[in-house]
Every structure is written in C-alpha cells, then in structure tokens.
Amino acid sequence: MEITNEHMVRMLTQMLRIREFDERAARLMEQARVKGSVHLYCGEEAIGVGVCESLRADDYITSTHRGHGHLIAKGGDPKRMYAELFAKASGYNGGKGGSMHLAALDLGIIGANGIVAAGAPIALGVAFASQYQDNDRVTVCFFGDGATNEGAFHEAVNMAAILKAPVIFVCENNGYGEWSPTATQTSVADIADRAAAYGIPGVVIDGMDLAAVYEAAGEAVARARSGGGPSLLECKTYRFYDHVGRDFGVLQRDPEEIAYWRARDPILLWRNRLEELGVLSSTDADALHASVVGEMEAAIAWADAQPDPHPDALFTDVYTEPAA
Amino acid sequence: MSVKTMTAAVNEAIDQEMARDERVFVAGEDVRVGGPFGTEAGLHAKYGDKRIVNTAISELALTGIGVGAAAVGLRPIIEIMIMDFVTVAMDQIVNQMAKMKYMLGGQATLPIVVTTHAGVDSSSAAQHSGSLEAWFCHVPGLKVLMPSNAYDAKGLLTAAIRDDNPVIFISNKRCLQTSCEVPDEPFALPLGVAEVKREGRDLTIVATGRLVIDALDVAETLAGQGISVEVIDPRTLSPLDMDTILASVRKTSRAIVAHEAVRTCGIGAEIAARISDEAFDYLDAPVKRVGAPFTPVPFAPLLEDRYLPGKAQILDAVREIGLTT
Ligand SMILES: Cc1ncc(C[n+]2csc(CCOP(=O)(O)OP(=O)(O)O)c2C)c(N)n1
Ligand SMILES: [Mg+2]
User: Fold this and answer.
1) Could you tell me the CATH number of the domain that includes residue B96?
2) Considering only CB atoms, which chain A residues are within 8 Å of B307?
3) Is the peptide bond preceding residue B239 cis, with omega within 30 degrees of 0?
4) At a CB cut-off of 8 Å and minimum separation 6, what does B32 contact?
5) Do B218 and B287 reside in the same domain of the chain?
6) Which of A104, A168, A229, B202 can bridge A164 by disulfide, Cβ–Cβ 3.0-4.6 Å?
C-alpha cells in the first residue's frame, strides 16, 4: 500500500493532536475546569486515525463515550471541543452535551454516546440512508469490546448484513470495560469471530500499528462503498489510563501489563517508523510535537474565553419549532 | 445505631440479607469492584463470584437473570448502575417481571429487587441524570421505592429483598452521600407506608428523594416566619400511602408536591390528582407541583442548576398559594 510521505506525517500529526488534546482534558477535569468527566482515548489513537484517514470528508462516523479521538480524526476542531468540555456556548453542542455527547453533524460526526452500543443501530440507520439516497457514502461505527455484549450491537450487525448496508463496525478492544477485564465479560477471545455469526468478514488487527489499521480499514471501506456490505474490524489496543480520567482508584492494573502496552504506544511506533524511513528527522518530529502542543494550548485559551450559554438555553432545542 | 452514609446503609442491607438467606444474590455491571457508587463494596470478597455476579455490559440479559432465577426460587438483586440504562432492560422489567404473576394466573412468584441510581449530579448530562420513577409507577405489578436518607434506605431495601414481588429500588445519587443514624442490626420498614418527617399545621409538602431534604430546609426557614409546614415522604411511590397524605392535607388545607423528576406526568401529578379527588372540600388553595422543567438534563453547570428543582422552586410554590410574600 502506497502512502505518501506527506500523508504519513499527517497521520502522525493527527495522533499527536488526539494525545495532547486528551492529556490536557484529563488535567483540566482534575482541576474541574472541564465539567463532568472524560474518558480518555490515550493509547488508542492509531485506530481513530487509521480508520478516519480511509474515509472521505462526506462519510459518517458514530462514536462512543471515549470519543474525543474519533472527533479529531474526523476533522473535529479542538477549540470547539474544549469549549464544549468547558460547557461554553461555542462548544459543539452549545454546552448542553459535554464530552459524552460531542457531535458535529456537518462533519459527518453523528455523535459520541453515553449509552454503550447505542451507536451501532444509529450507524445502521445512517448507512441505510446512504443506500436510500443512492449516494456512495460509508459509515464507520466505533465501539468498545464491552459494547459487543449488548443486544443492540448484535441486532445492528445482523440487519446491516442483511441489508448489505455500507457500514464498517470498528471494535476498539482495549482489554477492559470499565473495571472488568474483557476476558471475564466476553465469550470469545477474538471479537472478530462474532462476525461469522452474521456472515460478514471479521478481521483482527494490531490496533497499535497505524499502517495495519489503515490498510484493513481501506479494504473494508472499499468493500462497503462498492456495495459489498459491512465488515467487523477488531483492533487490539489498550487503555493507557483508567476508565474515567487518569486514575479513578477502583482497580489497580498490573504494572507489567501497562508497561508492555506503553512500549507499544502507537505514536511512538509510528514516529520511529517514519524516522527509520527517513520521512522525518527526530528534530522534525520534536518540532511537530511542539507545534501540536502549541495548538492545544491555544485551543484551551480560546475555549476559556468563550461565553457561557444563555440561561434560557435550558428551554431551547427540546423541539424543532415550525419555520417562521 | 451508628452514623452511616446511605451508600453504607444500602451495602449493609444487601450484606445482611445475603448472610441471612442463601437464595439472595446480586448481579450487575462492575459489582465485583463494589459498583460505581460503592454500594457493593467488600461484598465480592465475602460472597465470591457465585453470589456477586459481575456481568457483561448486557442490561437486558442481566435483568433476565433476575426474572428467570426468581421464577424458579432464587431472590435476585439486579443492579442497573445508572437509572437511564433501564431503558435497555425495559422489556424484562415491564413485560416480563411485572406481568408474569398475573399472566400466569398466579403461578409465578418473583421476589426481585432492581436497584438503581438516579438523579442529577456533577454534570453527567442527559443520558446519566434521569429520575424515571414515574415510568415504573405506571406499571401494575411493580413496587417502587425511593428513600431519602440512610435509615430509610436500609429498612426499605431489607423489606424489598424480603418481599415476594418485583421492587424497583431507586437511590438518588446525592442522597447516597448523606448520612444519619442507622441501626447496625437488620431491620425492615413496612412497604407502602409514608412517613411524616416533620409535623405542621399550615401546609403539607409531599416530597420524594432528594427533595425531602430541601422540603425540610424550607420548613425550617418558614417556621422562622411563623408558617408551620408538615413534610411527608411517601418512601414507597407504588403503592402510595394516600391515607397519610390525605390525613395531613385535611389538617393543613394546603399541599405542595415536590420531586426531582420532570414535573409533567411525574408522580406528583398522581398525588395532586388524588388529593383533589379525595380531599377537595378541605383545600384552601390548588395543589402545587414542583419538579424539573420539560427538557432533557443539560450538561453546563449553569443550565443544570437552573434545571434542578430545589428550595427556591418550593418557596415559589409557597408564594403562589399565598402563604408568604
Ligand atoms: C447501556 C449502558 N450500560 C452501562 C454503561 C456504563 N458504562 C459506560 S462505559 C462502560 C464500559 C464500556 O466498555 P467498552 O465498550 O469496552 O468501551 P471502553 O470504555 O473500554 O472504551 C460502561 C459499562 C453505559 N454508559 N450504558
Ligand atoms: Mg473496552
């Protein structure tokens, strides 16, 4: 698979943007400047980026409670995302949704979700609309390993298979659902095996390897776009931090396990690869990283300066008012 | 007696009933680590995987474990960690556990407790902040409990576990953090019996869950102005103890009903209707309802504060019926 040097660097940039966004979101939550709580995507960046880089701007995604990375990967603006986390009027949801409900429909981001697995039936519906409207857009449904134990997931995959809906089910298997290890929750070692029950392709991918994700996603997207129907991609990954924030204090994970996965940090792996290939010097990579940090600091400053929602915003948007 | 948080009181009730009756078990998500609010803290160490069943994220199936196991003789406690997630389990609760006894001509006995955590707390937004108790009060076959303090929580939950019917036990998240004196030994409060939390002559406030705390504060404030308020906590929302409420209203001639849930079609509507129906001749003012506005729960703290009914809204209602200026 050919990836231009420029594209390789862009993908590194995207992963760095996600990482630096969430590292800051975590600290801002600890300082109560971010309202509510955040579920961090750190460690899982290669999946959001590898998949979304295979999409067109007019394609769609549905996301999860752990959705900041999906948004940025699909073109979300960190300024408006921080503004939402700060509950400001200029946030993507006008301060009404927060982290778990971030959405940007004009970017094809149908939304994060507070209900585990609820994105799957919605993704099916979005993909159905693409068939109905006879366009060739595809929909990616991101979800966790735990979500595959909800009925909603199974119903959606079955119906997508029957309808040959252009949807790509992307499972981010990070080894845990909240504080329960996946192995104690899920009947199969490889969630990709569940695809067989619905007669669709199921592929296991190293979710820390950006190139692997990008390649598999490219194939699944091409298949969906050309009328071949849905696929299930299981990306093996790891949640670097706790379920909520950095350390919720309920479950101590094995330090060796954490160290093993930290050594497989998708950003580290990709950066090393680009340096080895001579795409980027170490100095270039450091400069890139520094510019991303600068972007995030500026985004936070911008978001901070935004106005609060008007108190009457409480009552708007409950219904669509008839056009005047 | 000792001072306990409501979380600890719930935990103690579950622990003591599990110790007393081998048929009692808990199934829920992340109950192995004590559940998201700590209501099962320490229980896995004591009772193991067999009786503290840490389930997959599968609310429908885990509620089904409750229905099926109860039908053949066990006494399940099913935890749905956040009340909004009951939607995923609704068929098992509404079509199965609530109706099974009736549909089967009385053959089935379903001693199930569904425990869940409700209400607005710390910007959890629209899918993690709901108070959905009225939905369940609309379903014949279910009992619905909503304690407002640690003492009631322990007594009511103990009674619920011993009851032979499906019971929905709702803990408000902010009430869980409050403490009071609670007996250390097991005890059961009667279901379907309201409690007069404070006696008064001029006004009855029927409040549920967190609003009981606010109503008691308001009563204290108004006492300073010479207005004597009676505060009643139904504790059981289905079946409702209307006798206690009506006796109070016949005495005070004024009533306000207050809850955190959306006002429209809330349990307050039922209570207000029944007061009007059965004590109309005693009323000096219309029955006022305090509840949340007809909107989903917003995320921004500023909007959340405006959304959340409390003391200010109760005081507004007091003014509306002409008791203060
Ligand atoms: C229907 C429903 N049940 C439970 C929860 C609480 N909850 C939020 S995230 C989560 C774990 C999800 O695990 P997984 O799908 O593996 O995603 P991850 O958090 O690991 O990314 C749970 C149980 C919820 N939000 N919705
Ligand atoms: Mg997971």
Assistant:
1) 3.40.50.970
2) 314
3) yes
4) A179, A180, B44, B49, B52, B54
5) yes
6) A229
Helix (H, G, I), strand (E, B) or coil at B29: strand
Per-residue pLDDT tens, chain A, 324 aa: give them: 689 999 999 999 999 999 999 999 999 999 999 999 999 999 999 999 999 999 999 999 999 999 999 999 999 999 999 999 999 999 999 999 999 999 999 999 999 999 999 999 999 999 999 999 999 999 999 999 999 999 999 999 999 999 999 999 999 999 999 999 999 999 999 999 999 999 999 999 999 999 999 999 999 999 999 999 999 999 999 999 999 999 988 889 999 999 999 999 999 999 999 999 999 999 999 999 999 999 999 999 999 999 999 999 999 999 998 887
Q: What is the pLDDT of residues A50-67, one digit of tens each?
A: 999 999 999 999 999 999
Q: Angle, nearest 10°, between helix axes A210-225 and A45-52?
A: 40
Q: Hey, are the CB atoms on B299 and A101 less than 8 Å from each other?
A: yes
E strand or H helix that includes residue B219 = helix B210-223
Binary contact (B84, A115; C-beta < 8 A): yes
Instruction: Enumerate the residues of chain B whose CB falls inside 8 A of the CB of residue A116.
Output: 57
- CB pair distance less than 8 Å for B32 and A180: yes
Measured CA angle at B22 (ends B21, B23), to 5 deg: 90
Tracing tokens 């008007």 back to the chain, one arrives at A310
pLDDT, tens digit (0-9, with 9 covering 90-100), for B187-199: 999 999 999 999 9
Q: Whose CA is nearest to atom 6 of ligand 1?
A: A116
What phi and psi, each to the nearest 5 degrees, are found at residue B52? -115, 95
Q: Is A236 left (phi over 0), alpha (psi -120 to 50) or beta?
A: beta
- Contact present, A219 and A189 (Cβ < 8 Å): no
CB pairs under 8 A between A and B: 118
Q: Which pTM was predicted?
A: 0.96
Cα separation, A294 vs A189, whole angstroms: 41
Catalytic sites of B, residue numbers: 59, 128
Structural domains of chain A ordered from first start: 5-306 (3.40.50.970)
Rg (CA), chain A: 19
Q: What is the C-alpha to C-alpha distance for residues A131 and A128, in angstroms, rounded to an integer?
A: 5
**Residue B188, domain member (yes or no):** no
Same structural domain for residues B151 and B213? no
Q: What whole-number distance in Å separates Cα of residue B99 and Cα of residue B61?
A: 18
Domain finish residue from B161, B182, B203? B182
Instruction: Decide whether any atom of ligand 1 lies within 6 Å of the B61 Cβ.
Output: no
The interface predicted TM-score of the complex, written ipTM, equals 0.93
Two structure tokens written together for A9? 């660097």
Indicate whether B169 and B226 sit together in one domain.
no
Tell me how crowded residue B33 is: count the other CB atoms within 10 A of its CB. 17
Number of domains in chain B: 2
Q: Which domain holds residue B207?
A: 195-320
Q: Is residue B151 part of a domain?
A: yes
Is residue B144 located within the same domain as residue B265? no
Give the number of whichever ligand sits closest to the CA of residue B88: 1
Note whether A158 contacts B: Cβ–Cβ < 8 A. no
Q: Is B203 in the same domain as B152?
A: no
Residue B236 CA to residue B244 CA, distance in Å, equals: 12
Enclosing H/E stretch for A173: strand A167-173
> Could you tell me if the CB of A147 is within 6 A of ligand 1?
yes
Residue with tokens 């308001």: B218
